[in-house]
Amino acid sequence: MKISVNWLKEYIPVTHTVEEMADKISLTGIESSPVKLGEELTNLVVGHITSIAPHPDSDHLKVCQVDVGESEDIQIVCGAPNAAADQYVIVALHGAHLPNGVKIKRGKLRGQESNGMICGLDEVGVPAKYMPEEFENGIYVFDEPQKPGQAVYDLLGLKEQMIDIDITPNRADTLGMRGAAWEIGATYDEKPSFTKPELDDAKVTSDSDITADVEEKQLVPDYLLREINGVKVAKSPLWMQRRLWNQGIRPVNSVVDAANYTMIEYGQPIQAYDADKLAAKKLVVKLAHNGDKLHLADEDKVLDANDLIITAGDQILGLAGVQTSDVAAVDENTKNVILEAGVFNGASVRKAAQRHDLRGDDSNRFEKGVDNGIVTEALMRAAQLVDQDSDVASISETITGNFTKAEPTIIKGSISHINHLMGLHLATDEITKILDRLGFDVAVAGDDITVTIPTRRWDMAIEADLVEEVNRIYGYANLPNTLPAGMETKGGYSPKRELANKLRDILLGEGMDEVINFSLLSKQEVEDFNVIDSEYTKLLHPMTEDHEYLRNSLVPGLVRNVAYNQARKNDDLQIFEHARIFSRATGKERPDEITYLSGAVSGNVVADSWNTTAQPADFYYVKGIVEELLSFVNADAEFTFEATKDYKNMHPGQTAKILANGQVIGFVGKLHPNYQKAHNVSDTYVFELNVDLLFDLNKKNVKAQAAPKYPAISRDLAILVDKDVENGQIVNDIFANGGKYLKDVNIFDVYQGKNIAANHKSLGYHLVFLNPNDTLTDEEVEKSFTVVKDSLVKKFNVEIR
Q: Which residue in 47, 180, 421, 495 could disulfide with 66, CB within 3.0 to 4.6 Å?
């Protein structure tokens, strides 16, 4: 909301600079900034076109003689199609500065001398979308004669000084000039003075055939109308037009402008309808039917049963509190007008505005709330302005569709408690004076205080709100500086967060990049990786179909990242995300939040260079990353990898479940080729770990050990085994039978193909034996080695090679 300083002066004395006022208002908790329009403008005056002639060498240019208050008229060549003799216009003289660094100089246009420029409003700083439509493609022409040579800045508000208030949602009372005057006045201990609108009693009549009805009274506590007959629609006066376009509102005509002006003045939106265009004399506020259409100038909006509409018979006049249709728009031919003022439910307005992408000045106010105590007065003010500018014949009394009496809020508290919460020792008189500056009625009985809050401050309800108001006006900068008292709590991360941070640091140390994705997915994405078999959790009011559900896996987000990068030729990726997923058991209302760690690797993990060959990512590379992570968990658990085909979007031959003591804690593998193709990604390997389950594992009791004094003995073992036997099974059996001195087993060779029996594979293992307390003999090692071989032959029918 931009607060015009000149307009503000009508309510309170203003003696401070706009910069000082913006700073002081900001210190009360409402962020503000100064706005100075047209600081760059110079040498702009009123000109009177005394004569006009065609340019001898141009079909569209005209040679104008213009009185600019000098001893002689000056000649200006103008190309505007609406330029004509006897017009009062804006003239930029020689040396004038215009917006965007434009400077006007004398010159010649096709041989004719031109000593300045006749300007349109957009050329002197008024945005084209806010200037009157009639001047969109030409120069601006004053409606009334002006003094040639006088500066145009005040006439057109070109150098208006304003305070731009960035309000919080609870302070919508400042979305009107009157509410802002109370706020700024309280800051400077000045109570605003307002003039109540009055109508000409001779024109007010009870004779009207217009009626109103509200079917959804819980959504529309107030709905009032006034019928105005015998209207002569004209242009609104210049003072009103300039205030409107400086507020970002295009002037239209005397009726529409009066409604918009009232909205800026009171913060109460007003609508105007052409009564002769209505399909019925009864206006009804009700819910729409599915498929109803709201006709707008540029498109039709299809409504549903959640939309609150205003109708006249079968005619839909508007989406309540959001947008008015053009079917009953007021124009220059309008003779009879209906003015509407209402209070519409903020949540209903907000949802409708979002649903149909129709956010505007009206919806912005209704969403945040309007003062239902001034609806009647605002409607009277709009009628008064229409009467002033349109010379009406009669004005009806208020026509009521629904009316709820506005009651002030009464808050009780105590002086001592208010001081205690602020950490101050203000006298009772000082506190009551501050509350009085805000326009609150205060009654004091000893230490007790009772404050009556006017309806314009609907954000206040409890004693804490009083404390905030006293604090704001007293000044946050004046509060004493004190150290916190009481027990101190040592800061730091929880053990679970420390584990997650450790795992994150490990991945960063391995050269992976961390990403942060949205917690919301599409329905297809939550179905794609529902490996935890969770119920889906859908938002009540999602913004888009791509963000309807809470994620049950981090993998879909990583796949999006991979696709985005590969589409831009960034193919070598190693990324991970540490975040929460949402798992909801059947029948449970709320999902559980579980910390997960997921990663994705694609492209080359070793770059091609003069001394290295490019190495693409594979299953074992990513499995190695996972094993590295698990080694730092320090869990007293046996981690195993079990091949699986259970996950539909993972490669059935290159995917494994990750288990801790037999409990599934995640998975690792390659994305299914069909899934990769559908998402436009090349070969990509992913992993996912449940950090909460890792944290719950028992911890190892780590003890330091001296380095072994005695040498180790190694043996190599080559076997031929059925291709379906897993390496893990072989390793586990070797450890089970290798004796107490077997320290390590590594596979160093895998071969299938020529000279190997069909459906078989050759595996090579390196076994390491070590006795930390004595020198091992070959006999001891050979004995254990023989037991290992015999067990493998017996259990897996291997052939020792």
A: 47
E strands within 436-551?
441-445, 448-453, 513-514, 520-521, 549-550
- Whether residue 491 is predicted with pLDDT greater than 80 in this model: the reply is yes
Instruction: Return the residue matching tokens 């004076």.
Output: 433
Q: Using CA atoms, how far apart are residues 471 and 431, in angstroms rounded to an integer?
A: 10
Q: Which helix (H) or strand (E) holds 394?
A: strand 394-396
Distance from C-alpha of 201 to C-alpha of 241, rounded to nearest angstrom = 27
Q: How far apart are CA 667 and CA 555, in angstroms?
A: 11
Distance (Å, whole) CA 168 – CA 761: 71
User: Rounded CA gap, 799 and 323, in Å?
Assistant: 83
Residue 528 counted as an annotated binding residue: no
For residue 564, give the nearest of 554, 551, 575, 553 by alpha carbon. Answer: 575
Contacts of 317 (CB under 8 A, 6+ apart): 273, 278, 283, 309, 310, 311, 324, 325, 327, 328
In this structure, what are the phi and psi dihedrals at residue 366, rounded to the nearest 5 degrees? Answer: -65, -35
The conformational region for residue 357 under phi > 0 = left, psi -120 to 50 = alpha, else beta, is: left
What is the per-residue DSSP string for 416-479?
HHHHHHHT----HHHHHHHHHHTT-EEEEETTEEEEEEPTT-TT--SHHHHHHHHHHHH-GGGS
Do 134 and 87 contact (CB within 8 A), yes or no?
Answer: no
DSSP, res 477: G
CB-side exposure of 637: number of CA atoms within 13 Å? Answer: 24
Task: Kindly state the average pLDDT of the residues 47-53.
Answer: 96
Percent of the chain with pLDDT over 90: 84
C-alpha of 498 from chain center: 32
Strand 615-616 relative to strand 604-606: parallel, antiparallel, unpaired?
antiparallel
Tokens of 656: 């494994």
| pTM tops 0.70 | no
| 3-state DSSP of 205-270 | ECCCCCEEEECCCCCCCEEEEEEEECCCCCCCCHHHHHHHHHCCCCCCCHHHHHHHHHHHHHCCCE
**Which amino acid would we find at residue 404?**
T
Tokens for 709, please give them.
């004094």
Helix (H) or strand (E) holding 731: helix 727-737
Counting every residue written for the chain, the total comes to: 801
CA angle 321, 327, 331 (to 5 degrees): 100
In order of start, what are the domains of the chain with their CATH numbers? 2-37+161-187 (3.30.56.10), 44-156 (2.40.50.140), 204-402 (3.50.40.10), 409-478 (3.30.56.10), 495-696 (3.30.930.10), 713-800 (3.30.70.380)
Judged on CB neighbours under 10 Å (0-12, 13-18, 19+), 335 is middle
673 touches 651 (CB < 8 A): yes
Rg of the Cα trace of the chain? 40
Torsion over CA: 542, 543, 548, 551 (sign): negative
Residue 1 is encoded by which pair of tokens?
A: 């909301």
Q: Is 384 helix (H, G, I), strand (E, B) or coil?
A: helix
Give the DSSP letter string of 107-128.
EEETTEEE-EEEE-GGGGT--G
Q: Which two tokens stand for residue 784?
A: 């254990």
* Run of H or E residues at 65: strand 62-67
pLDDT tens digits along 414-471: 999 999 988 889 999 999 999 999 999 999 999 999 999 999 999 999 999 999 999 9
Chain Cα centroid distance, residue 285: 31
DSSP state of 508: H
| 469 annotated as ligand-binding | yes
pLDDT at 702: 77
Q: Which two tokens stand for residue 490?
A: 């040592």
Q: How far apart are CA 136 and CA 222, in angstroms?
A: 38
Q: Is 573 exposed, middle or buried (0-12, 13-18, 19+ CB in 10 A)?
A: buried
CA torsion, ordered 538, 540, 544, 550, to nearest 10 deg: -30
How many CB atoms within 10 Å of residue 421? Answer: 16
